User: Which sequence fits this backbone?
């Protein structure tokens, strides 16, 4: 019949076992107690209640992030692992803000946005902050990309959002018929800007077409 476990093993199981709040696993598995628990009380005995569970407070120098992410390592890291297994992009960051990944961002590797230096802090949180070099509009439409684009690549723009509403013969036209480039702006909003004066009354009535015509038809109203 197996006898009771030695007291020290019971203590380790309670405070550092698989179901404890700080399990010793992987990199911590074979670390001696005395390597972490170095504090002593007035009688010279080891104390345990003053040791922080935060990695960088005493045990590990923050040589990667260099303090840029704060000192609460356990928000991203778990005991014995260098990988940020506890980090979830869908939850608030240590600073309380968040950048929820959606659409095409979900399949990206961390380095695609954060680079290889693992500093993380300071990464842009706006579309134009990351995509300024591949802005197909070359800045002509401003920096509020979210007005027309979604993270999954869908374009949500409709001409109802613009100052030039499409109706009549303009409805259903391919964008390229009017917009010869993806700059989109500037484009004329007067008929004559897109439609040359017809030969039938060339130089007779000027270019104020809307006096007689509508977008429904070239026939006079």
Assistant:
């Amino acid at each position: 019949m197996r006898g009771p476990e030695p007291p020290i093993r019971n203590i380790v199981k309670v405070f550092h076992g698989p179901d404890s709040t700080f399990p010793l696993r992987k990199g911590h598995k074979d670390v001696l107690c005395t390597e972490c628990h170095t504090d002593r009380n007035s009688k010279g005995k080891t104390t345990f209640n003053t040791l922080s569970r935060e990695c960088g407070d005493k045990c590990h120098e923050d040589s990667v992030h260099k303090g840029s992410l704060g000192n609460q390592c356990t928000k991203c890291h778990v005991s014995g692992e260098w990988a940020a297994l506890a980090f979830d992009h869908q939850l608030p960051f240590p600073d309380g803000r968040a950048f929820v990944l959606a659409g095409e961002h979900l399949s990206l590797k961390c380095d695609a946005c954060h680079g290889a230096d693992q500093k993380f802090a300071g990464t842009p949180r706006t579309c134009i902050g990351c995509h300024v070099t591949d802005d197909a509009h070359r800045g002509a439409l401003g920096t509020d990309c979210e007005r027309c684009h979604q993270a999954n690549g869908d374009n949500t723009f409709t001409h109802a959002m613009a100052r030039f509403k499409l109706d009549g013969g303009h409805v259903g036209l391919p964008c390229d018929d009017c917009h010869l480039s993806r700059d989109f702006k500037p484009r004329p909003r007067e008929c004559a800007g897109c439609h040359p004066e017809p030969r039938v009354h060339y130089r007779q009535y000027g270019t104020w077409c809307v006096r007689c015509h509508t977008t429904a038809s070239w026939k006079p109203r």
In short: The mean pLDDT is 85. The CA atoms of residues 160 and 216 lie 17 Å apart. The two ends are 105 Å apart (CA to CA).
